[in-house]
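BUG: 3D viewer hangs when loading the predicted structure for this chain

Environment: internal workstation, default settings.
Expected: structure renders.
Actual: progress bar stalls at 90%.

Input used:
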Amino acid sequence: MVGALERVLVCSPRAAGWHQSDHAGRWHDLGFQHAPNFETAQEQHDALCRQLAAAGAEVIELAPSNKLSLDAVYAHDASLPTNFGLIVMRPGKPNRVSEGEHQGTFCLRFSIPVLAKIVAPGTTEAGDMVWLDSKTLLIGHGYRTNRAGIYQMRDLLAPKGAEVLSAPLPYGQGPSACLHLMSLISLLNDRTALVDLPWLAVETAELLQSRGFNFIEIDPSERDTLACNVLALGNNRLLAIEENRNTNTRLRQAGFDVRTFPGSEICINGSGGPTCLTRPLLRA
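Structure tokens produced before the viewer hung:
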């Protein structure tokens, strides 16, 4: 999760139908803070893509589909790439179920095979999944990823030599809100994690510390603007949204090269930061 980013999948607001009234009109039901502004969101997404390309990544844009909702811009959640192929997720948010199938079919164009698909009653979203190392996957158990989904992931990865561990997630703002494990943890390099420590379960914090991770805590005043959602670009380079100035300052003081883009519309409005907006497909 922290190697140099070489290939990344994104889904633009245009591809997700933010400019279409029938899509945009569902903003309240999907948990957005206000009706989306397509032009601003697209400009901010373009700025994200420029930063990704400047960091050396090949940026691939997901093809449009009438089955996608506004949430599809948060491309991270619908699939999990592994060395053995793509695992298609079955999101816990009903309007997002079609995203996994769409990503799986699209990635075949780039010779990325599908290893498996999560099936009912399992639900999984990749925003709940953090690789602690190449053989250990930590999965948050919450409202988006359930116990049955975690069991399926364990059964899929055990034959490949990978261990799946479960991490309890807090109730937070309840089932209708989006709270992923990666809302509380972002790995910055092999030994450093950005964390929202008060919201982490004790056992999760202890697990990370037992594996040698050092913590940088977000500025608590920036929790609601997704301060913990930071994308590792590799080689201690990070991508964050410019609105979280205090947390970004902490990261720079810790020696990280922090690049930013504006995220008021594309990120904060829909509760999805830089990691949510990107589905890394290949890292060094």
